[in-house]
Amino acid sequence: MPSTIVDVQMTVGDVMIRPATAADAGGIREIRNDAILTSTAIWTGITQSMSEAAAWVDEHLERDSMVVAECDGFVLGYGCWAPWRAKEGYRFTAEDSVYLADGHRGRGIGALLLNAVIASARAAGMHTMIADIEAGNLASIALHQRLGFETIGTVKQAGTKFDRWLDLTILQLML
Ligand SMILES: CC(C)(COP(=O)(O)OP(=O)(O)OC[C@H]1O[C@@H](n2cnc3c(N)ncnc32)[C@H](O)[C@@H]1OP(=O)(O)O)[C@@H](O)C(=O)NCCC(=O)NCCS
Predict the structure, then answer these.
(1) Phi first, then psi: what are they for 168, rounded to 5°?
(2) Which residue, of 4, 27, 99, 106, has the fewest CB within 10 Å?
(3) Within 6 Å (CB) of ligand 1, which residues are found?
(4) pLDDT in tens, 59-97
(5) In what helix (H) or strand (E) does residue 54 lie, and over which residues does it extend?
């Protein structure tokens, strides 16, 4: 079956945006676990084991919904989409995620990844994309607004981590 993401593969400077493969699971896990341990971007403190990370990446590979940013053989970041909610009535609504390793942010790579994720969701026939973002995550909110997402609103104290309440800002892009 032709890949929907391959169509948006590109190289910008020394960074290549390409579809993820199973071999990227270790690099993706490292970035994801760092965000789990050090930030409020992911609302859990439970890190992924290698087998959990491989299974999670595989789920995305099956729906062709994950891209990575690679430089010199290293995964600098990843972007993906997945169903926003499990019930079948939500099946045309995707939720996106974009994560870069510390030290590689603010260079435009997040925008390249999110553009590729949007293109993939469109190609898969998704109707709309939602971003659930911790209200204080100004970089992620700016990234999404830059790519055309509209701010829908903020749910106050929707979650908790590091012994404080977290507000959830919801943004949406019609695909
Ligand atoms: C959020 C994240 C993916 C953004 O990726 P990035 O590569 O740093 O962003 P880009 O360089 O592509 O910037 C995209 C836009 O957002 C803006 N932006 C980026 N970082 C910003 C910041 N800290 N504050 C304000 N605006 C910011 C940029 O100015 C740019 O807009 P412009 O083109 O009008 O200048 C990245 O910062 C990251 O990985 N953060 C940690 C993980 C995370 O929070 N992920 C999102 C979870 S919801």
Answers:
(1) -115, 115
(2) 106
(3) 35, 41, 98-100, 105-111, 133, 137-140, 142-143, 146
(4) 999 999 999 999 999 999 999 999 999 999 999 999 999
(5) helix 50-63
